[in-house]
Amino acid sequence: MNAPITSLEPKADRCAERREEILDAATKLFAKHGFNDTDTQQLADEIGVGKGTLYRYFPSKRELFLAATDRGMRKLCQTIDASVEKITDPPERIATVVRSYLTFFQDHPELCELLIHERALFKDRKKPTYIEYREANRERLRAVYQHYIDEGQIRVIPVDQLLDVLGDLLYGTMFTNYFSERHASVEEQAQGILNILFHGILSDEGRRRRPAE
Fold first, then answer.
1. Structural domain total, the chain
2. 152 lies in a domain?
3. Assigned domain for 128 exists
4. What DSSP element (H or E) covers 26?
5. pLDDT surpasses 60 at 205
6. DSSP state for residue 2 in the 8-state scheme
7. Whether residue 23 has pLDDT greater than 90
8. Burial class of residue 55 in the structure, from the number of CB atoms within 10 Å of its CB (0-12 exposed, 13-18 middle, 19+ buried)
C-alpha cells in the first residue's frame, strides 16, 4: 500500500506567518527603541515565543533588523507597482507614483526610523537598503521613462537625470515630513510636487528671457 501523500504547504505557510509576525513586532520595537536598545527577549515575550524561535528565523539581531528594513522597502515597491498596474497614461502614472509613495510613508513612519538607524549604525554595508532597491529598479524605470520620451509625452531630457531628480525629490520630502512632523495632506503635497514637476517654475516670459543652453 502506498504511503499517504502529505503536503508541506501548511507547515511552510505557518513558517511564513511566523516570520511575518516576528518582523511586524521587530519593526515596531526597532522603530521605537532603536537597534541598540531593542532587546530580543522583549521581542520574544511580546509575540509569545522562546528566544530560540527568533534565532531559528534570524540568527542575529543584525539580520533581524536588516530583514525588517528589507521587508519595508519591498512593501513600498509592491504598493507602488500595484497602484499603477492598470494605468497607461504617463502623467497619471507619475502622479499615482508620487501619491502612493507619500501615502506609504505617512502610513508607515516606522520605516523612516529603520532607514535612519540603518544608515547610522551599519556603515560597513556597501549600500543602504533604500539605495539597493532604488538601483535594482533602475533599468526597468529607465525603459519606462524612455518610452514616454519616445512617445512625446515627456520632453527630451537625459532619463537618468529625470529619475535622479524625481527620486531625490520624493526621498527628501519623505524625510522632511518625518523630521518636521509636517501635517500637510498627501494630496496637498502631491499637487505641489506635480505642479512644479509638470509645469516648472518659469513663466512664458521667464523662459523667453532664459539664455539658450
1. 1
2. yes
3. yes
4. helix 9-33
5. yes
6. P
7. yes
8. middle
Cell of 12: 511552510
Q: Residue 192's CB: how many other CB atoms inside 10 A?
A: 13
| Separate counts of helices (H) and strands (E) for the chain | 11, 0
Of 64, 73, 62, 79, residue with least CA distance to 110: 73
Q: Which three cell numbers stand for residue 191?
A: 499637487
pLDDT 10s digits, 45-104: 999 999 999 999 999 999 999 999 999 999 999 999 999 999 999 999 999 999 999 999
In the chain, the percentage of residues whose pLDDT exceeds 90 is: 83
Rg (CA), the chain: 22
Alpha-carbon gap, residue 88 to 140, rounded angstroms: 16
Residue span of the structural domain in which 98 resides = 65-201
> Rounded CA gap, 61 and 55, in Å?
9
All residues at 6 or more sequence positions from 98 whose CB lies less than 8 Å from its CB, including other chains: 170, 190, 193, 194, 197
Q: How high does pLDDT run on average in the chain? A: 91
Q: Residue 151's domain is classified under what CATH number? A: 1.10.357.10
Residue 168 lies in a domain: yes
Spatial CA neighbour of 138 closest among 156, 157, 172, 164:
164
Residue-wise pLDDT tens digits, 140-157: 999 999 999 999 999 999
